[in-house]
Structure formats: structure tokens, C-alpha cells
Specification:
single chain; Rna Polymerase Sigma Factor, Chain: A; two-stranded antiparallel sheet; 8 helices; about 70% helix; disordered C terminus
């Protein structure tokens, strides 16, 4: 939690006070960072009411996870990461998209574009071809919005290993989704 600069020092002090049981210190942290969190949520969701809910959820998660904040972690980026993750979760629940991995597919203009159900089924089948470990890491990163570092901490693996697994998984998924009707593999 060792942040440098005046703002970082204030945050560090407020975090320590919160962890010591002073809830007014957390209220002060909320006042300091809520506007930025709400701005991120609004930009990701496009709906102020949903963004308010997501910001509240992110603040609750931050409060619950404050004790696990690692030394040297800057508070604002950590809060914004939680907010983004909460917004992605909300957006996925609101508008489930089976096309999460469709970036690996290019459809020529003359080719018939498969129905969403066909694409979703192909993506599901491609994910099933991954090992359990790879599938879990892909899901945590792309669908749940966790960073490589967060996944590594959660699974007790080095960040480099997480990045390698994501790279391997993307290559595998590119090959699998290239089999969709009318799709060409990206280079």
C-alpha cells in the first residue's frame, strides 16, 4: 500500500484507518475515488443507472478486499480495475454475447455469415477442446475480466505462465474458429 505523492499518502493513511475499523476513513476513500469509478462504469455500460449500481458493487468488493491489497498497489487503478470487472460482468448478464472470441474470424463480404447460434456453438466447442486449466484461464481473463496478474495470484501461478497460456489458447481458438463456414483465419 506504499503509494508515493500526496494523494497516495492520503490514500495509504485512509486505508490503514479503514483496516483498523474506522469506517469514516472508507467513506473518505469513496468520496475521493467514486467519481472516477462512476465515469468508467458509465463509459462501459452507457447507462447512468446501471453504472451507479456497478459502482456501488465495486465499492463493496473493494471494501471486502481491502485487507488483501498488496504493498505497493496504487489504490485508484485497483479500484478502477474492480469497477471494469463489475461492469463487464453486468454487461455480460444484460447482453450475453456468444461472440467473445469472434475477433479471430473474418467473414468475406460474399460469404454467408453464420447465425449467432452457429458461432456460439463453434466457440463453445472450441473452448471445450482446451484443457481444463487453459479453459479456466481464458474464461477468467476474457469473460470475467481479470488481469493476468490477478489470475496468477488467484491460481498461484506466475504472470508469465498466465500470458503463455492465453497466447497458446488464442492460437488454438483461432484454428478452431477458422473452421466456421465462410471464415478465413487471421494472420
Amino acid at each position: 500500500m506504499q503509494e508515493t505523492g500526496r494523494h497516495g499518502d492520503i490514500d495509504t493513511t485512509l486505508i490503514r484507518q479503514t483496516l483498523a475499523g474506522d469506517l469514516t476513513a472508507f467513506d473518505e476513500l469513496v468520496l475521493r475515488h467514486r467519481r472516477a469509478m462512476l465515469s468508467i462504469a458509465t463509459s462501459l455500460l452507457g447507462d447512468r443507472d446501471l453504472a451507479e449500481d456497478v459502482t456501488q458493487q465495486a465499492l463493496l468488493e473493494a471494501f471486502r478486499g481491502l485487507h488483501g491489497l498488496q504493498e505497493g498497489t496504487k489504490l485508484r487503478p485497483w479500484l478502477l480495475t474492480i469497477t471494469r470487472r463489475c461492469a463487464f460482468h453486468r454487461r455480460a448478464r444484460q447482453h450475453p454475447s456468444p461472440l467473445e472470441f469472434s475477433e479471430a474470424v473474418i467473414y468475406p463480404q460474399h460469404a454467408p455469415i453464420p447465425q449467432d447460434n452457429d458461432i456460439a456453438e463453434c466457440v463453445r466447442a472450441s473452448l471445450e477442446e482446451l484443457s481444463t486449466r487453459h479453459r479456466r484461464i481464458v474464461t477468467l481473463h476474457y469473460l470475467d475480466g481479470y488481469s493476468c496478474r490477478e489470475i496468477g495470484a488467484r491460481l498461484n501461478l506466475p504472470t508469465g505462465t498466465i500470458k503463455r497460456i492465453l497466447h497458446e489458447s488464442r492460437a488454438s481458438l483461432r484454428g478452431s474458429t477458422a473452421l466456421l463456414p465462410g471464415a478465413q483465419r487471421m494472420r
